[in-house]
Amino acid sequence: MEEGKETKGKLTTEPKIERTSEEERDRLSELPDFVLLHIMNFIYTKDALRTCILSKRWKDLWKHLTTLSFYQSSLFNERRVVNFNKFVSQVLSCRDGSISLINVRLDIFESIGSQLLNRIMKYAVLHNVQQLTMYIPFYYGKISTYLDPIIFSCQSLTYLELHNISCWPPLELPKSLQLPALKTLRLSRVLFTATDNVCAEPFTTCNLLNTLVLNDCFLHNDAKILFISNSNLSSLKLNNLKIRDTFQHKVVLSTPNLSSLTVCIFGASSLSIQPLSSTCNLSCLEEGTIDIATDISHPVLIGWLQVFTNVKILTLSYETLKLILKDLSNLATMGSQPLCFVRLESLKFVTNRFRVISDEEVNKAVEYLLQNSPLIRVLLSKKLYHGSLLNYLGGFLFNLDEYF
To answer: Measuring CA to CA, which residue among 124, 120, 223 is closest to residue 176?
Structure first.
């Protein structure tokens, strides 16, 4: 009987397969160190460190990592916090200090001591970190609302994301960010303070800054103007800036090479929505987006639109369109100075299938916005708008696009 075959009333076992030496080779360990380290840099440092038990070859390999990524789950107890803090300290102590860092990431969803946090910042700066990403809750009594200023004068940093994931208080930043190599900056729930006058100018010295995103940021009580001044900046996104007094506080742009500008307001009080103006005509502006999901005054809305008068592609949300229509219902408002979008090539209205707006309303808004503008085309959602708009906008190149 041949082994491994089924016979009448009896099932034999499969024959043992003998592996060749070629099949038993540990191909992963045969890879050169730089390839293994490249792979390990994509995982959390805790998992990378666990490889030290595989063999003698792996024992000290993690110490040469150029990326440190620490993650602390929100599901924890006091003992886990102590162990996490101890683990981070051991990594900083045991890692090969002769090797520069490329990337440091902190995802902390509960608590980390201020002393340890600032130790991480100093270690990153002293090891020439290039990219730093932090999601950290800054609570009173748990984590100081100040970071060691050394991180804001790092000469090697090219990318910085700093997100304060606690609702209050905001993290207070230095008056000026001395980051000469910085190209991308993303900030959430931070506080800007004024210089010697009433103006906060945190970005002026970031000479290479190309992309800036501000989410839920605040002005200190001693500041009345957030002055975003940077000649190299090309992309700017402002989300829910929190400034309490509309008539005394404002945002002023001095960004002559800006090519993309987005302004979004969601769920904010009308008193916290600030006027937006520019010291230059933004002649390089290619794309602009306005998305307002709360009520604001007509002068503030018009001021925002005037900042975009040199844009080529302008996108307005459904909520923004409704605000324009609300203002137009006031006869005094309709008599205001018309806007002139001198370079406009495309006007887009972005909405969804659950928010229906009539053709008549769209016609009215388009007529107001474009009465003095050389528009080329209007892009609307074809699931909401149909043939009647073609009759009204027959003089324009009208293109129906899908936005779902």
So the answer is: 223
Interacting residues of 97 by C-beta distance below 8 A, sequence separation 6+: 127
Ordered DSSP codes for 118-156 = HHHHHHHHHTT--EEEEEE---TTTS-S---GGGGG-SS
Q: What is the pLDDT of residue 156?
A: 95
Q: Give the position of tokens 């001021």.
A: 303
- Sequence-separated (6 or more) residues with CB below 8 Å from residue 20: none
Tokens found for residue 394: 């027959």
68 sits in the region (left: phi over 0; alpha: psi -120 to 50; else beta) called: beta
Question: 276: which residues sit within 8 A by CB, 6+ positions away?
Answer: 238, 250, 251, 253, 263, 300, 303, 304, 307
Cα–Cα dist 276/18, whole Å: 75
Mean pLDDT, residues 328-353: 72
Task: Please give the Cα distance from 46 to 205 (Å, whole number).
Answer: 37
Beta strands in 79-119 (DSSP E): 103-108
Place of tokens 């050394």: 150
Q: What type of residue sits at position 267?
A: G
pLDDT one-digit tens code per residue, 181-224: 999 999 998 888 888 778 889 999 999 999 999 988 888 777 78
Non-local (6+) Cβ contacts of 393 within 8 A are 366, 378
258 CB-near residues (< 8 Å, 6+ apart):
233, 234, 235, 236, 282, 284, 285
| Beta-strand relationship, 6-7 and 10-11 | antiparallel
Look up the pTM and report it: 0.81
d(CA 217, CA 239): 8
- The token pair at 243 is 């400034």
How confident is the model over 291-310, as pLDDT tens digits? 887 777 777 788 888 899 99
